[in-house]
Write a sequence for this structure.
């Protein structure tokens, strides 16, 4: 699971960096989607470490919002 989080973090950093350097925001929904996947994985890792941790549940709720925003942005364009 740690390797998946590292790969997702690298993908998010690369997509964000590309968008910042080129000033094009066409890849922003994909970046947000991978950011949502990253926060889901982080939340699941937190829940595995501490069974009653608040941060794990908060990360999953935040990732649901990020998924909603990225899907909405994909459908509007």
């Amino acid at each position: 699971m740690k390797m998946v989080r590292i790969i997702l973090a690298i993908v998010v950093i690369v997509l964000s960096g590309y968008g910042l350097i080129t000033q094009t925001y066409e890849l922003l929904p994909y970046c947000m989607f991978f950011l949502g996947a990253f926060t889901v994985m982080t939340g699941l890792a937190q829940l595995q470490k501490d069974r009653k941790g608040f941060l794990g549940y908060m990360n999953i709720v935040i990732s649901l919002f990020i998924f909603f925003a990225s899907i909405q942005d994909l459908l509007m364009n």
Q: What stands out?
A: The chain has a mean pLDDT of 90. The two ends are 33 Å apart (CA to CA).
